[in-house]
Amino acid sequence: MGTILLVCLSYSLPLSMGNTELLFEIVKESISQIFTYRYLSELFIIYQQTNGDYTLKLISTSLTITLFSLLIYSYYFPKMKNKKVMRLIKYLEDIESLPVLGIVFFIHWLSVVIYKETSIYLFKTVGTPREPAITVPLVILSIFPIIFLIKYMTPYIKDVYQSNYFIFAKSLGYPKYKLFFSYVIPNLLPFLENIMKFIYLEMITVMLFIEIQFNTGGLLTGLRNTQFIPSDTTSPQTTVISYLFLLLFPYVLMSFFFKTIHFFKLHK
Amino acid sequence: MNSLKNKNLTLWIFCSVVLFFLLLSCLYEPLLSKILTLRVESIMINGEVKYPPFTPLEVLPFGTDIIGFTIFAKIIQGFKYTFFIGLLLSTAQIFSSLIITILTLYKLGSKVLLPLFSYFDKLFTLIPKPFLLLLLIGPYSDALLFNTDNVQPSANLKFVMIQLFILFLVGIPNLVKLYHSELSVLFKQDFALASQTLGSSKFRMIGYSFKPQLTELTLNLFFKILTQNLSLFIYLAYFQLYLGGSLVTQLDASTTYTATISNEWSGLIGQNINRLASTPWTVLIPLAFYGGFILLLNGIKRSLTGGMQNQSI
Description:
The complex is a heterodimer. The longest helix of chain A is centred in the last third of the chain and has 38 residues, at about 175-215. Chain A has helices at about 1-10, 20-35, 35-50, 50-75, 80-95, 100-120, 135-160, 165-170, 175-215, 220-230, 235-265. The mean pLDDT of chain A is about 85. In chain A, helix 1 (about 1-10) packs across helix 2 (about 20-35), helix 6 (about 100-120) crosses helix 9 (about 175-215) and helix 10 (about 220-230) runs antiparallel to helix 11. Chain A is globular. Chain A contains 11 helices and no strands. Chain B has 11 helices and 4 strands; from the N terminus they run H-H-E-E-H-H-H-H-H-H-H-E-E-H-H. Chain B has helices spanning about 1-25, 30-35, 70-105, 105-125, 130-145, 155-185, 190-195, 200-210, 210-240, 265-270, 280-310; strands at about 45, 50, 245-250, 255-260. Chain B has a two-stranded antiparallel sheet. Chain B has a two-stranded antiparallel sheet with strand order 3-4. In chain B, a hairpin with a 2-residue loop joins strand 1 and strand 2. In chain B, helix 9 (about 210-240) packs parallel to helix 10. The interface of A and B includes residues 2, 94, 108, 240 and 251 of A.
């Protein structure tokens, strides 16, 4: 509801400052259009037309890569020295504070330079909606979440490995991999819950620049175009709301999934 | 002891670098603009007349943009705008959020203000930040359209104020939430409970008992929000919503070049963004300076908060 109001506000405010009637009219019009069966079919058409598959597939692959990287990091964590970890976190903090856009530009430019200098066409750097670039966007999309996840999860990983249970079980001779899957991972999962939703939202931001920079098309390109290409509909705000709904659908699914897990845990 | 000395030294070095750049930038209009080469319209290379853009090898040290303005002069001129706009915005956000957080500690504030700001924080997280800015600022840019024939300083100023106001509003909810959660933890500490039992007011506790913790938190949040604001400036520039307005130059019958008026760093990046393949130095050099500035801020933050941790020990 807040999203609908915000979008309507952005469309009504510059037209007439303080005219609440206009805002009310726009909100009423948008809501009457949104809660219809026809709107649902339009959502599906928008998804198909804007290559929504590409956006969501790339994000979900990147989420998988991020989780896998965290798995590897937490498995090898005990082998790393404390000083080394602290230094790693410091560097990661620095990279994380750099603007996402800078990293997107730099990697894009670097891949073009590699191609120009070596004439080896390793990765596609500029795609089309029909044949979008995949590898380089996937790398860029995964960098920030991996950095963020490692930085955020390190204290929890450290706590789990330093817990009495783990030390005792290890001293009794339990194999490391067995302890990792039966104790370390289950104890890290609750902390991952909130952060996964946040990472998804951050990925959407990065994806916006990737889609534009690599000319791949997708939901975020469509969303951006709503602001640059004049709309052929009478209510452009409804189109913006549609794109936001489509983008936030996986987020809602994720929330629902975690809530279901909690429900079953409580009633076990 | 040695590490504390090293941290102090690092802090001095980092602050000196920033101040040196700031001084150079402030001296640009009265002094440096008369000494430095501002624009190169053509040069002779191997007996041939060449026109802009020039690479960093042709025009030292950083080359020129598509209309011949030297990147070096623009970088020096623009730093003060980036620095002061970022500083002003972040300081205003920190102070306002601290005041709002103090209000949320009282009954009415906790019932009205806190849920409101928490809701806006969630709402602003759900919409991608660059798009949120485009959505809120974009229509105003269209309304106050700039072009070479009709550049009105008042319209520019109005546009900057709108941009800053929206940036200010977008950052506040998250800061209020962070401050509130930290203060809630502090109020549950034993010493805070004892102090409250002895009759200390909430306001006095914030101003006196929590001073060390709040100073460190404020410093951390200030640098966090400053870095975030710098990133948001680039997002704005990416969509050609430059801080300080823009100027459209007609290159030929079909090509136009939109440039930032203030030469603010994010604007310098944004104005050449579509030329990454043809003139990469016009994007990457300002970007490198921008990244360097953020890393310097990180270094200053680390030295400051590290020094404070040592003091408390």
